[in-house]
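Quick one, tokens below. Sequence please?
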């Protein structure tokens, strides 16, 4: 009987430990993303030309410890995808196509998310990048790890992150016009990579 009671006590202790909430790191500060002053720009190329556009951040937070960036999770409102190089009928057709199942399936997946896994400070390079950020990027419900350089500025009132990097759309099941999957498409081919330029502003 004593052995049985002891076993129950140990099991109960284990459950209590597992259920304990994570301990917040001492000195950690959270900042909220300011969607109005943040920008997300995209650039896509194809054999016959290129297109430019934007999207809007919706919600998110970033965390710092002292002057160091340590984490963050930011959401992008995919319903705000827009093309800035076209107007009128051609603009509407492109934006509608980008939101369709050929590309981002916005009706099914209206949010993309980037969740910082590690943020490593480094000596600034020629472009001014002073961090290497590794994050989980989720598009169309598919999550893949991305790593990119960034310029990070932390002060008492805000955090500003500037980043410029490429995303391989085919990793997120966006294969339309990809010569990696469709042979013989010639000048209808669209690059697998598209570039994003991000300026994220987060405030206390």
């Amino acid at each position: 009987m004593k052995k049985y009671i002891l076993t129950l006590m140990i099991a109960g202790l284990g459950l209590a430990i597992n259920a304990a909430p994570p301990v917040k790191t001492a000195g950690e500060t959270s900042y909220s993303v300011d969607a109005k002053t943040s920008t997300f720009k995209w650039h896509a190329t194809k054999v016959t030309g290129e297109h430019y556009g934007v999207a809007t951040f919706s919600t998110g937070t970033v965390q710092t410890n002292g002057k160091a960036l340590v984490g963050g999770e930011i959401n992008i409102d995919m319903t705000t995808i827009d093309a800035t190089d076209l107007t009128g009928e051609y603009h509407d057709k492109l934006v509608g196509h980008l939101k369709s199942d050929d590309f981002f399936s916005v009706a099914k997946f209206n949010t993309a998310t980037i969740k910082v896994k590690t943020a490593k400070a480094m000596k600034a390079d020629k472009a001014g990048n002073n961090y290497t950020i590794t994050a989980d990027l989720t598009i169309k419900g598919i999550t893949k790890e991305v790593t990119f350089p960034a310029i990070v500025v932390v002060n008492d009132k805000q955090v500003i992150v500037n980043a410029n990097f490429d995303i391989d759309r085919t990793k997120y099941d966006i294969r339309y016009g990809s010569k990696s999957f469709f042979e013989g498409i010639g000048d209808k081919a669209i690059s697998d990579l598209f570039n994003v330029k991000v300026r994220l502003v987060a405030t206390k």
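Strands lie at 28-33, 39-46, 49-65, 68-83, 111-121, 131-139, 142-154, 158-168, 190-203. The chain has a mean pLDDT of 90.
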